[in-house]
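Hello, quick one for you while I still have it in my head. A protein chain has come my way and I'm curious about its shape. I'm sending you its amino acid sequence along with the backbone structure tokens. I'd be grateful if you could look everything over and explain what you see. Here's the protein in full, and shout if anything looks odd to you:
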Amino acid sequence: MPTAFITGVTGQDGGYLADALVADGWEVHGLIRSPDPALADLRGRTPHVVLHDGDLSDTAAMARLIDSIEPDEIYNLGGISSVAMSWEQPLLTARVNGVGAAGLLDAAWRLQERIGRPVHLLQASSAEIFGAAEQSPQDELTPTRPVTPYGASKAFAHQLVGVYRRRGLAASTCILYNHESPRRPERFVTRKITMAAARIAAGEQQTVSLGALDVRRDWGWAPDYVDAMMRAIRHGVPDDFVVATGVSRSVRDFVHTAFVHAGVDDWESRIEVDASLTRPADASDQVGNAAKAKRVLGWAPTVTFDQMVARMVDHDLHAD
């Protein structure tokens, strides 16, 4: 039975990935960090995942764990995933997202050398590595110019994948643009919006406070992006792939779509702009060119922006 190891297994992407791998007959191991409020949901959905409690930034412990599991595939989806949190804890972000990725790459390479067979690794990279990009849309050749601690930590990990690839490790990256689902925690603005729309529609809430409404992002459906990662790690030639829809929308567009779908037509009067929620620096517009992923991996998004938002709102409307 093939074996996979997933960091960030209790996160949005980690959960969808674990579901898919278990369904395909894989033995799946996942890294957790207790206490984790999302752990109960994972166990309820996918009870067969073997869980390991640990710290991604503890590189020695991660090396021992990988050496004992001997996975065929390693998916590094863990770390500090919030750009806002990276401003609050930049040192922790650097240790977990940057040093943690370096430790996994080195552990995978050393395991490969010991067992004499390929160990495939997928690094979940981010559009935040491009930061204030001079070109739009961005592709795999766009220079990295991060403008946030999160983006800088991801840029370091992204470039280190190329270093280990040249060393002989089957390491790939998916440069993921924003992707959402009902499994997003409420600390992410998209889920905050859909939950507010549902609560306002039900009369349980009157307004919602948001930051900048004109920031634009390329939003896709999370299970589509997990599919891209599985295609990338199993492609015969390790490489970098932008995963995006190619269409950018503003936060205002997201709010409008969510509230109207929930039946709240006076949505503009329900929004309170809070300057304290605006980040110190942020790329104003991000949109990706996924032509390479479509051509090489045969990947394409299957869910539109409107469908994605509707699915999230419908989930929140019917939540207990």
Notes: The domain at 182-217+247-287+303-317 is CATH 3.90.25.10 (UDP-galactose 4-epimerase; domain 1).
